[in-house]
Amino acid sequence: MLTYNSTSTMPIKAPTKPVSIALSPTASSPMTAATPSLNSAAINGHKTQGQQHIWLVTGPAGCGKTTVAEYLAKSLGMPYVEGDAFHPPANIEKMANGIPLTDEDRWDWLTALREESINRLNAGSCGVVLTCSALKRKYRDVIRVAGYYDRRIQIHFVFLDAPEELLLARVTQRQNHYMGANMVHSQFDILERPLANEKDVITIDVSRPIEEVEQEALSNVLETMAKSQDKL
């Protein structure tokens, strides 16, 4: 089990040969669009000039992470990674039984998400979109480590914000999901909303129709990538 204070880090190799991943443009999956190669990537008219972007859609249960992340991935032509799928069985069992995860439960999960993001970039994608609650700043810092190994990698967070009461109501209506309504309160208990000095975070109010949330998120993402390109 890794700990946050551990000095060991996973080895991350910079991409050495861009690979263009051609996927069917007619399928409905967010992974369907042909993924741009690193040397010639362009997203909605914004050239990436070899930059690679990791976009994490974050927030407590019920905020709409999956919906927004899938929309962004499809719109940007980037692969999508569902963070919940990387929880080990022990974590899922705890949450299904209403037992909050500890920091120790999360370190290996967060590291796995970081590693998977790097793998997608190494496969030739100019970016990747993934979901991750990232409730505390130190959880976000685990993902930020990816940028320390390769300065081409830009880390961004889209924090979906809403009152606890609203998210509780949404989760109560969900079916066939291991995250029960009782877990919403425990997540808000430990939630550390991004501070102003976390410059890589975009905060979106999700107490609105999902179409408005999706459009605002996409607009902010495109603007952020354009500004990142201008700094080169």
UniProtKB/TrEMBL annotation:
One of its GO terms (biological process) is carbohydrate metabolic process. Pfam families: AAA_33. GO terms for cellular component: cytoplasm. The keyword Nucleotide-binding applies. InterPro entries: P-loop_NTPase (IPR027417), Therm_gnt_kin (IPR006001). Pathway: Carbohydrate acid metabolism; D-gluconate degradation. Its EC number is 2.7.1.12. Keywords: ATP-binding, Kinase, Nucleotide-binding, Transferase. It comes from the Eukaryota. It catalyses: D-gluconate + ATP = 6-phospho-D-gluconate + ADP + H(+). GO terms for molecular function: ATP binding; gluconokinase activity. SUPFAM superfamilies: P-loop containing nucleoside triphosphate hydrolases. NCBIfam families: therm_gnt_kin (TIGR01313). Belongs to the gluconokinase GntK/GntV family. This is Gluconokinase.
